[in-house]
């Protein structure tokens, strides 16, 4: 019974040391591997596409360490949308800040913040009004791809991300005449 507090104390100390060593190794691996992210461009594009629900292609991928967080920078992103959908999504630069602790906890990359520079969103070709109906709402039922793209954009920007910002961006939409 006298040894129980000592055993618990040693177990706690060893657990803490183990966690700190794992964290130090993870940070070191990230610091070394982030500048070489261009080799994993297709994997990163797949991860971004799966995370957003929209297929994206990027011209350049880079990574760096800033303050206490790793960042992934994607340049000249373009959404690959269905052929019949004329919606365009172009992004000059997206900077993704990863949450190291949450990523380790979930064993998958977790986005902490997203900064978008030069977003160009063109949704003017979506038919918002059904013919003969003046109700404004969801896109026309005959265009499921447009509706799914808008749902994915809404989910990404308004629900999935807690912290994001845009700069030097523009949006083009259809004007309603009534």
What does this structure look like?
The protein has 178 residues and is of the alpha/beta class. It has 4 helices and 7 strands. Strands 1, 2, 3, 4, 5, 6 and 7 form a 7-stranded mixed beta sheet that branches.
Itemize the secondary structure elements and their pairings:
Layout: H1 3-33, H2 41-52, E1 55-57, E2 60-66, E3 69-80, E4 88-98, H3 100-106, E5 111-122, H4 144-160, E6 164-167, E7 170-172
Parallel strand pairs: 5-6, 5-7
Antiparallel strand pairs: 1-3, 2-3, 3-4, 4-5
Unreliable parts: 132-144
The termini sit apart by 84 Å
Assign the structural class, choosing from mainly alpha, mainly beta, alpha/beta, alpha+beta, or little secondary structure: alpha/beta
- What percent of residues are in strands? 25-35%
Number of helical regions:
4
Q: Give the overall average pLDDT.
A: 78
- Counted beta strands: 7
Helical amount among residues, as a percent range? 25-40%
CA-based gyration radius? 22 Å
Rough outline: elongated
Main sheet? Answer: 7 strands, mixed
């Amino acid at each position: 019974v006298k040894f129980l507090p000592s055993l618990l104390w040693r177990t706690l100390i060893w657990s803490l040391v183990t966690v700190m060593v794992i964290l130090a190794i993870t940070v070191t691996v990230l610091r070394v591997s982030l500048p070489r992210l261009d080799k994993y461009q297709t994997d990163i594009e797949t991860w971004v596409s799966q995370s957003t629900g929209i297929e994206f292609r990027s011209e350049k991928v880079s990574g760096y360490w800033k303050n206490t967080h790793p960042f992934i920078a994607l340049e000249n992103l373009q959404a690959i949308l269905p052929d019949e959908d004329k919606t365009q999504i172009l992004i000059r630069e997206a900077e993704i800040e990863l949450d190291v602790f949450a990523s380790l906890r979930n064993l998958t990359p977790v986005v902490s913040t997203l900064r978008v520079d030069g977003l160009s969103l063109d949704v003017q070709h979506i038919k918002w009004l059904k013919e003969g109906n003046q109700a404004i709402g969801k896109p026309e039922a005959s265009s499921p791809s447009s509706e799914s793209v808008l749902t994915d954009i809404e989910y990404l920007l308004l629900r999935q991300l807690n912290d994001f910002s845009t700069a030097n961006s523009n949006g083009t939409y259809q004007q309603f005449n009534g």
